[in-house]
Amino acid sequence: MIETVDRIAIRALFVGLILMAVSAVGLVGQQLPDRLSLDEAIRLAKANNPNFLSTVNDQAAANWQVREAYGQFIPSVRTSLFGTWQEAGSQRFGTIVFEGQSTDWLFSGYNVSFGLTLDGNSIFGVPQARANKRATEARISAAEFNLESVVALQYMAVLRAMEAVAVAQRQLDRARQNFDIVETRVETGAAAGTEGKQAEVDLGRAEVALIQAQRDLRQTRLLLQEQVGVPIGENVRLVSGFEVFEPAFEIDQLMQYAMEEHPTLRSFRAQESASRAAARQTATSQYLPSLSLSASLRGQAQEALNESFVLSQAQGIANSRVSNCEFQNTLNDGLNGGLPGYTNQDCTQFAFGPADEAAILSQNAAFPFQFEEVPMTVSLSVSLPIFTGFSRERQVSELNNQAEDAEHARRAEELRLRTMVTNTYDNLTSAYRVVQAEQRNRTLAEEQLQLQQRRYALGAADLLLLMDAQTSVSTAERDYLNALYDFHYNLIALEAAVGRPLRVR
User: Fold this and answer.
1) What is the pLDDT of residue 133?
2) What φ, ψ does residue 298 adopt, rounded to 5°?
3) Which residue, of 90, 100, 248, 315, is most buried by count of CB atoms within 10 Å of its CB?
4) Full 3-state SS string of 354-422
5) Residue 134: closest CA among 266, 257, 258
6) What is the rounded radius of gyration, in angstroms, for the C-alpha atoms of the chain?
7) 115-171 pLDDT per residue, tens
8) Per CATH, the architecture of 131-289+388-498 is what?
9) Among residues 472, 455, 503, which one has the least CA distance to residue 249?
10) Is the pLDDT of residue 192 over 50?
């Protein structure tokens, strides 16, 4: 027995390892290709993001809610089948005892019932279910649009982190170049040894900046992986490019897009419609009568396990019928003129014979499916609520309040979008001008650094001027990078406020 248990445990462990391997293969199969565009990242997110998929799952329940609402107009059907065994012996019903039951009994039966209930909830349930379905669809569309915006922002964050690594690498290269220049002057005695130490410190700071930029890139990749829902290896390259352009949108047109097409606003409007449909349903259905119609078809079978008991019962009945027949014949013969309208009968016809015994045994063998039908029952009831302790009024008031809350939420969303469209468009136009300015600053800083490097190499400038020029270039590159991606971030924010893409990806 112990060996058998061990074999079972080993087999279960082996199956578990196989399942783990299959799962691992499935995860590997989810690995991305070497090149990942923004559209591909959004497509993967829609197929794998857990939060979005949990929202999409609501669609199935909403569809079934509509089917259920229509199904209220179709009679319900229920069926049941039962079997019972009853032991021989005395049967007690309260204080009454029935003695002498000398056989076990088998009982079986079936019941098929039909029911239909029509009330206000049934009549007004269809429009409410359809309104809830539209609200669910709008909520899914809003979640899909929000997911696209979040993935685009995180995709852009990874691109920015990659650019930051490149900037840090250039800073490190310039720091090494400056260090070489300073070391050359120190070795020739043209500069003090402290200048070499200062250049070395600057080189170390550039190395630290590169390490931090690489760490930030790894973290932003993980955040993008969290949104996409599948692993993103370090070898995956993001290949979508984004150009800076002068915004030339019409603010009134953007506002119209937001008020008419924004998925989130449509979701709020659909929720408001669903809330009002629920309020109308309750306000009307609670005062309408309810009609219930039901019907039941039944059958039952009964069999005694003691055939001798059944035969003795049938024998007793036959003997009683024979005795009664003989008594009637004797009475008819003894009366003057006989019994009115009575003719002597052959009493042997009532005697219990082999054919009767076979028929009784065949009739008794009814378990489990030799059912005898029970007369059908049909019932109809109509009820009308008169006074319910103000519960109807409370429910109507609560649902009306929820509908008003949904209206207020929709108006608040409209106001939020109006403010967001105006602010994000202003931020975008400002970001474009900042990009142009920072681009000029970066060019000037690079020219100044080259000039100071040549002057320092010739001994016409001191180390402080060279370090200041290096710092200016590093600051200008970081500021340009920030301005560049602030433009892209603000464009995504404007798209999120408007509710539609504003450039071709």
Assistant:
1) 94
2) -135, 155
3) 315
4) HHHHHHHHHHHCCCCCCCEEEEEEEEEEEECCCCCCCHHHHHHHHHHHHHHHHHHHHHHHHHHHHHHHH
5) 266
6) 45
7) 998 888 888 888 889 999 999 999 999 999 999 999 999 999 999 999 999 999 988
8) Up-down Bundle (1.20)
9) 503
10) yes
Query: What is the rounded CA–CA span in Å between residue 251 and residue 426?
Result: 10
pLDDT in the model for residue 125: 87
CA dihedral 219, 225, 230, 231 (to 10 degrees): -20
What is the rounded (10 degree) CA torsion for 411, 412, 418, 423?
A: 180
Return the pLDDT at 23.
Answer: 40
Alpha carbon distance 489, 505 (integer Å): 14
Sheet strand arrangement including 76-86: 76-86, 105-118, 290-304, 372-383
Domain locations in the chain? 131-289+388-498
> Which tens digits make up the pLDDT trace of 491-503?
999 999 999 998 7
DSSP run (H or E) holding 86: strand 76-86
- CA separation for the pair 494, 500 (Å, rounded): 9
CA atoms of 165 and 179, how far apart (whole Å): 21
Using DSSP's 3-state secondary structure scheme, residue 76 falls into: strand
pTM over 0.90: no
Distance CA 311, CA 13 (A): 63
CA pair distance 404, 35, nearest whole angstrom: 50
